[in-house]
Predict the 3D structure of the following.
Amino acid sequence: MAERVCDSDLLVIGGGLIGCAIAWEAAQRGLRVTVIERDEVGGGATYAAGGMLAPLAEADGESPFLRSCCRSAELYPGFVAKLRDTVGLDVEYRTEGTIFVSLNETDDEELESRFRWQRDCGMNIERLSRANLLGLEPSLNPEVRWALLFPNDHQVNNRRLIKAVYAAACSAGVEFRTNTNAERLLIRKDGGHQVIRGVQADGKVFEAEKVVIAAGSWSSRIAETPETGIVPIRGQMVAVRNAVPPVRHTIYSRRGYLVPRLDGRLIAGSTTENAGFECLNTAGGISTVITNALEIMPGFANQPIVETWAGLRPRAADHLPVIGPDASIRGLIHATGHYRNGILLAPLTALVVADLLTGSSPEIDLTPFLPSRLMI
Ligand code: GLY
């Protein structure tokens, strides 16, 4: 008979930033929480991310999704301060802002359009002339035409962040089962209803009355999970030593981005590839990332490469996150599909999911993010 483990109120499948932040928040609200992680904590998309907290730089238009991203960005200062107070770790939250450069006429049109709709929505956005931009960032391409500055689009060191959230979750009593593969959901019948009973992982039965699926790209691979159609979208990245003078802002073009770290690294990203679960670098992918970085900063060519890596972004069919209770299995909650915004959306997702778990009303309307929208 399978070994039974049944001392938790909540099982969180997935030990990335989303799963750990939910576990930490739920534990602070009095739940006994176990996180089941197939690999190491934070080893997937959390490790691979760039750490941009950039709702405006990445937005296509005004929407409930953009408002949620802005709300989560607003939560960040409190989130990192609480982490510092709880576990004494600095996660390198940087507030220099984000710059979006124009390098050709098509870029001009895109930036003009973005400037108009964001200003009309009352967003904090500024125009920078070439001279102003090069004054702020002398290492950028001298042929840049102009740029947008998003003063409220910040960044965080995602690799330090996950260490801090993990430590905070441990200090709140969360138990972690790493290198443990969640194979299937366990479901029981109660009258005409399906009710979650737990999770089978590595042949063991973990019992709990609540389960959260926060398994990123692996969310659709757990047997008996109602299908949300999450697919992995590969992003390849390169880090070089930062230039002299160093780039200080996060810099986007329409084709790529640069993110400076306080440890002296400059990260360049990224590809957007449908390559299944092949999480690796290819010559073509790295070449694309470097070409786009060189366009923003020609001096990138002289900087020593210190790391290359790849990650898998979890994406739903409509590219929106999947957050909310499952419509057919009572006690099951989805918190996945954060695609390009997992680091940004972690604080808000944790609050909202903890609200659902404890019977409070979430502070945002979850309708656009409910898993039921994706189920046939
Ligand atoms: N948020 C940046 C990326 O996914 O590449």
